[in-house]
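Postdoc handover notes: sequence design on the structure in folder B. Input C-alpha cells:
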C-alpha cells in the first residue's frame, strides 16, 4: 500500500474527495484488477482508503482551490457571438461593397467572441485550448458564410474574384441561428459535467459509472442538435418577414434553404463536441476533428481548381456530383458533409473517452460544473 501511496502522493495531497483519487488512478492505468492486489474490490474502494490515510491525524488540509464563483451576468457573455450573426443577417439588406464590409465585420465579431470565450469567458477551456484553434474556428465560420458563393464561382469557371461576395439570406440566417445556439449549448455542457460528477459519487465501480454516464452524454448531444435544428428552422422561417422589411419586392429563395441549415447544424455539433472533449482532457482529439473538417473543405476547393488542368477533369467530379444533388443541396452540401463526418467521428470517440472517470476529474470540470460535495459521514464510507 505504501508503494502506491508514494507514487500518487501528489494526487492524494490535492484531492478534495475520494472520487478525485479514483479518477486520477484510472487515468494512470490503475484498474479494478490492480486494486485486488491491494486487497480492495475495486478502484473506488482503494481510493477511499488512500484518501483516509492522506487525511489521517496530522495531515494538513488540501490546497485551496475550486471553481470560481459565477456572477449572475456570466451567462450573458454566451450571447456575445450572436451579435456577429445578427450583423451578417442585417447585411443581406444591402448590396455590393456595403454588404461585403458589414458581412466581414459580422464574421470577425463572431470569431473573436468565440475564441475569447474559449480562453477567458464562461466557455473557457483553460490551458487545454489547442494551438491554432482560433484559425480553425475562423476558417469554419468564414466558409459557412462565403464558402457556398466561392465554390459556385469556381464551378462556374471564374478565374479570380472580380466582384464582391454575395451572401444570401439562407446563409446569413444559418449563421445567426448557429451563434444563437452558443448559450443553450453552454448550459447543456454544464449540465452534462454536473451529471457526470454526480454519477461518480453514486457508482460502486468504474463499470457502473460508465453505464450511468452514457445516457447523459447521449442526451446532451441530442439536446444540442435539437436546439440547433429549432433555431435554424426559426431563422429560415423568418425570411419572408425580414426580407420584406429590407426589400418589399423580396422573394424567398426556396432552393437554397434546406442545406444551409443542415450545414450549420453539422458545424454546431462539431464545435460542441470539440469543446466538450477539450474541457474534459482530450484537446488533441478535438483538434484533429476540427482540422479534418477544415481539410475536407479546402480539399473540395482545390479539387475544383485542379480539374481545370487538361486531363485532370475527373478530380472535380466528386464535388460536382455532391453539389448537383436534389434541390436545396447545392454548394452547402460540401460543409454539411465535411462537418457532419468530423462530428460523427468525434461523437464515436466521445462515447469511449467521456465515459471514463478520469475525464471528469476536478481540474477538468471545475469551470463548467458545480462543485461535488464530499461524502457524508453518515454514509459509513461503504459503497
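Designed sequence:
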Amino acid at each position: 500500500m505504501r508503494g502506491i501511496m508514494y507514487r500518487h502522493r501528489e494526487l492524494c495531497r490535492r484531492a478534495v474527495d475520494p472520487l478525485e483519487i479514483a479518477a486520477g488512478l484510472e487515468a494512470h492505468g490503475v484498474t479494478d484488477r490492480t486494486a485486488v492486489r491491494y486487497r480492495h474490490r475495486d478502484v473506488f474502494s482503494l481510493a477511499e482508503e488512500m484518501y483516509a490515510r492522506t487525511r489521517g491525524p496530522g495531515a494538513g488540509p488540501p490546497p485551496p482551490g475550486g471553481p470560481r464563483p459565477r456572477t449572475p451576468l456570466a451567462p450573458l457573455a454566451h450571447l456575445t457571438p450572436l451579435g456577429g450573426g445578427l450583423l451578417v443577417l442585417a447585411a443581406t439588406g444591402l448590396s455590393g461593397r456595403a454588404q461585403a464590409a458589414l458581412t466581414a465585420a459580422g464574421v470577425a465579431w463572431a470569431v473573436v467572441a468565440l475564441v475569447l470565450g474559449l480562453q477567458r469567458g464562461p466557455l473557457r477551456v483553460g490551458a487545454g485550448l489547442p494551438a491554432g484553434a482560433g484559425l480553425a474556428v475562423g476558417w469554419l465560420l468564414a466558409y459557412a458564410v462565403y464558402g457556398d458563393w466561392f465554390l459556385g464561382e469556381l464551378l462556374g469557371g471564374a478565374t479570380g474574384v472580380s466582384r464582391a461576395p454575395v451572401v444570401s439570406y439562407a446563409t446569413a440566417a444559418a449563421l445567426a441561428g448557429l451563434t444563437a445556439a452558443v448559450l443553450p449549448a453552454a448550459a447543456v455542457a454544464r449540465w452534462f459535467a454536473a451529471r457526470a460528477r454526480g454519477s461518480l459519487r453514486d457508482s460502486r465501480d468504474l463499470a457502473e459509472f460508465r453505464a450511468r454516464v452514457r445516457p447523459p452524454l447521449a442526451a446532451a448531444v441530442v439536446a444540442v442538435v435539437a436546439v440547433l435544428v429549432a433555431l435554424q428552422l426559426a431563422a429560415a422561417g423568418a425570411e419572408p418577414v425580414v426580407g420584406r422589411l429590407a426589400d418589399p419586392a423580396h422573394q424567398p429563395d426556396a432552393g437554397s434553404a434546406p442545406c444551409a441549415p443542415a450545414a450549420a447544424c453539422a458545424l454546431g455539433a462539431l464545435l460542441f463536441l470539440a469543446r466538450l472533449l477539450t474541457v474534459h482532457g482530450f484537446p488533441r482529439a478535438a483538434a484533429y476533428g476540427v482540422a479534418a473538417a477544415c481539410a475536407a473543405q479546402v480539399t473540395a476547393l482545390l479539387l475544383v481548381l485542379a480539374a481545370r488542368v487538361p486531363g485532370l477533369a475527373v478530380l472535380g467530379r466528386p464535388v460536382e456530383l455532391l453539389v448537383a444533388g436534389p434541390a436545396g443541396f447545392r454548394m452547402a452540401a460540401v460543409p454539411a458533409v465535411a462537418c457532419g463526418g468530423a462530428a460523427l467521428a468525434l461523437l464515436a470517440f466521445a462515447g469511449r473517452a467521456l465515459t471514463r472517470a478520469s475525464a471528469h476529474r476536478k481540474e477538468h470540470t471545475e469551470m463548467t460544473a458545480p462543485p461535488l460535495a464530499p461524502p457524508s459521514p453518515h454514509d459509513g464510507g461503504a459503497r
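Context for whoever picks this up: The two ends are 20 Å apart (CA to CA). Don't rerun without checking with the PI first.
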